[in-house]
Amino acid sequence: MDIFEELNVKYPIIQGGMEGISKSKLAVAVSNAGGLGLIGTSGLSVSEFKKEIDLAFKSIDKSKIFGVNIVLNEDGIDDKIEYTISNKVPLVTISAGNPKNKIKQFKDAGILVICLVGNSEMAVKCEEYGADGLIFSGSEAGGFISSVTTMAGLVPVIKSVNIPVISAGGYGDGSQLLAAQAMGAIGIQMGTRFLIAKESPISDNYKNLLLDSKENDTVLIGEDLGVSIRQISNNFTKEINSIENLKIGQLIDLYTKGMVKAVNEGNLEEGHFLCGMSVGMIEKEQTVDDIIKEILSEYNQAKDRLFND
Predict the structure, then answer these.
(1) Which single residue of 115, 192, 234, 274 could bond 131 by disulfide (Cβ 3.0 to 4.6 Å)?
(2) What pLDDT was estimated at residue 257?
(3) HEC letters along the chain
(4) 37 near 65, Cβ under 8 Å?
(5) Left if phi > 0, otherwise alpha if psi is -120 to 50, otherwise beta: which for 8?
(6) CA torsion sign, 292 to 96 to 19 to 148?
(7) How far apart are CA 308 and CA 244, in angstroms?
(8) For 132-155, b where at least 16 C-beta lie within 10 A, e where not — what string?
């Protein structure tokens, strides 16, 4: 099964469910441009999430669909799941927790389920639980990441299962979409590239920081705790990595507060600027429509180079 064909999504490009960023305006823009936009549960209260779902249904082209990224380990997630199901959102992606019971709940409601995984062992489990597809996200991604790179991990994940796999982590150019398909993925998920979109709700300081950053300007926090989170290096990341005996709860609290300071305030000193290594490919702010058109142009150019040179 090709999930994109099943849902009548024109282009095999999913927008990532970024905390406090993947709201209706961005998701609808991606879907209307021919990709698959996601509204993320993370970083939104239950009432805020419901509002974003309602706004998306009101503003999306009636021939298009959007999905929801379900982050299992957050407060209010059961209420958000119930609202997602009651509104018949056609697809969900699931991350940050054991999806076993939730997969059945969604599938019983007729909703397609894609699980986010970081290795082949997780992939096999999710297939056993009944997932319709997988997103393998490599360590080049922003936010919470796998310990395995996209290039090294994608093929083992694809070979381990019989359901379709979408690749994520480090994507920002159409030639990479072609490469992912060559390795067996049905498409890609991008987060960082859409951060700079005109429809993205992040602060101007955040966008300017992305434009000024290169692929080697990201750093990880939380590695010693077994939780790796990638963002742009700044005083915030240096302070966190210098804290002795840092606890996981303390890290998550600092991360959450830092995200608010980055997304809403653009606080360059105290903000957590979520970002993947693909930031080095970002050259300008564009509309979502222009981003997807550029990805497709790069994809076709890469195909021409490969097969016609």
Answers:
(1) 115
(2) 87
(3) CCHHHHCCCCCCEEECCCCCCCCHHHHHHHHHCCCEEEEECCCCCHHHHHHHHHHHHHHCCCCCCEEEEEECCCCCHHHHHHHHHHCCCCEEEEECCCCHHHHHHHHHCCCEEEEEECCHHHHHHHHHHCCCEEEEECCCCCEECCCCCHHHHHHHHHHHCCCCEEEECCCCCHHHHHHHHHCCCCEEEECHHHHCECCCCCCHHHHHHHHHCCCCCEEEECHHHCCCEEEECCHHHHHHHHCCCCCHHHHHHHHHHHHHHHHHHCCCCCCCCECCHHHHHCCCCECHHHHHHHHHHHHHHHHHHHHHC
(4) no
(5) left
(6) negative
(7) 57
(8) bbbbbbbbbbbbbbbebebeebbe
- Residue listed under structure tokens 């790179």: 149
Task: Compute the distance between CA of residue 110 and CA of residue 167 in angstroms, rounded to an integer.
Answer: 24
User: Which tokens belong to 88?
Assistant: 């018949």
Structure confidence by residue, pLDDT tens digits, 221-276 = 888 788 888 989 988 888 888 887 888 888 888 888 888 899 889 899 888 898 99
How does pLDDT run across 107-122, given as a tens digit for each residue? Answer: 999 999 999 999 999 9
